[in-house]
Amino acid sequence: MPKDSDWEAYKVPPTRTPVSERTTSVPNPVAFLQTVFNYVVDTPVTFVREWIERQQAKNKYYYYHQKFRRVPDLSECLEGDYLCYFEAEAQWRRDRMVDKEIVEIVRERLGACKQREGPNQFQNCAKEMELLAQVTKAYQDKYGDLGVHGNARTCLMKQKHRMMEERKAQANASQ
């Protein structure tokens, strides 16, 4: 017995019923609604959208390259100038995020070098290791031991105390 998929053995005769074309004197309401929607909603919205895109294409704005002006440091703010305090705090937070990203980028470069070099990593990645040591030491000196809730004032006080200790050490070494 032949398979069902063998169409050559069992040809189906073509249908004799013609395909009916629905032509009536009443217009199709779906086509009418689509046309109305196109002219009332879609065309004006498309026009406005294209106009806005043309305006934005004239002056491109890259939001990820936002540049903030440098504000005075907290030590330069006058006493009672709360707006200056706020701006200095915001500037300090941005600087901290940038410094954190710098440390992370250097760490990723060192990891990529270690992955690439394999057993020769200690010889071939010495520059990256030294750079990471310098960057992490600088970050630790500036932001270390501040904790999660550290702010510009505590960071400034930490730096002041560190500078005072360095001066004492220099004075003791010279005597």
From TrEMBL:
Superkingdom of the organism of origin: Eukaryota
Pfam families in alphabetical order: NDUFB10 (PF10249)
Segments for region (Disordered): 1-23
Coiled coil: none
Entry annotated with the keyword Chloroplast: no
Alphabetized UniProt keyword annotations: Electron transport, Membrane, Mitochondrion, Mitochondrion inner membrane, Respiratory chain, Transport
Principal location class: mitochondrion
Compartments where found: Mitochondrion inner membrane
Function per UniProt: Accessory subunit that is involved in the functional assembly of the mitochondrial respiratory chain complex I. Complex I has an NADH dehydrogenase activity with ubiquinone as an immediate electron acceptor and mediates the transfer of electrons from NADH to the respiratory chain.
Protein name (database record): NADH dehydrogenase [ubiquinone] 1 beta subcomplex subunit 10
Protein species of origin: Ibidorhyncha struthersii
Gene: Ndufb10
